[in-house]
Write a structure and sequence with these properties.
Structural class: mainly alpha
Number of helices: 9
Strand order of the largest sheet: 1-2
Distance between the termini: 56 Å
Strand content: 5-15%
Shape: extended
Helix content: 55-70%
Length: 196
């Protein structure tokens, strides 16, 4: 508790950076402070960074690094547009969508490579609508979704392609795929109850 009070004082007096440098002046020093039930880890030692990252990722497939690298290269292409301004929020959002869709579904949404992004546009419409409904608190659940019905249909149609592709595989085909190469959809299909 004393540490949290000290950190708050340093933040309030704009001395937090100096304080963190002082803490990290000891070579290889790593500090972990719980903030809102999440660990805030500050370190300068590369071995500590690798160790911390290995505990934060529960399951990584051998192909995930290549996916991250390919998507990052697509992002960097957008950033190297000869000094032209760019919308960082938009690019990061598209990067995350591409990574998540490829890792979880087995195929990238390719939103960084395409100007037309129907899945992303529909998802944003749905997020805006649901965010507006939260203003009503518990009553928001009673508000019908008719203004975003078209977006819901488009998202469901997009997801159905991957769900049907996965469900079309036999149980033997799914189990034959090594676990470290399974997508999230594959893992969920393997765990589904067998039809009777």
């Amino acid at each position: 508790m004393d540490l949290i009070i000290k950190i708050w004082r340093k933040l309030a007096t704009n001395q937090f950076i100096e304080y963190s440098r002082e803490i990290l002046s000891v070579p290889g020093h790593t500090v972990s402070v719980p903030v809102l039930n999440m660990p805030l880890i500050v370190t300068e030692d590369t071995e500590n960074i690798k160790a911390v990252m290995s505990t934060q990722v529960s399951k990584i497939r051998p192909t995930d690094a290549a996916v991250l690298n390919r998507c990052m290269n697509n992002l960097l292409r957008h950033l190297s547009n000869e000094g032209q301004p760019c919308d960082m929020y938009d690019l990061i959002d598209r990067y995350v969508l591409d990574v998540v869709s490829e890792i979880f579904l087995g195929e990238s949404a390719d939103s960084l490579l395409s100007e037309k992004q129907p899945f992303r546009d529909n998802m944003e419409a749905l997020v805006r609508w649901n965010t507006a409904k939260t203003v009503l608190g518990p009553l928001g659940a009673l508000v019908p979704d008719f203004p975003v019905r078209k977006s819901l249909k488009a998202i469901n149609a997009y997801m159905d392609i991957y769900v049907q592709r996965t469900l079309s595989l036999s149980e033997e085909e799914l189990k034959a795929k090594p676990e470290k190469y399974q997508t999230l959809a594959d893992s969920l299909a393997v765990q589904r109850a067998s039809p009777k």
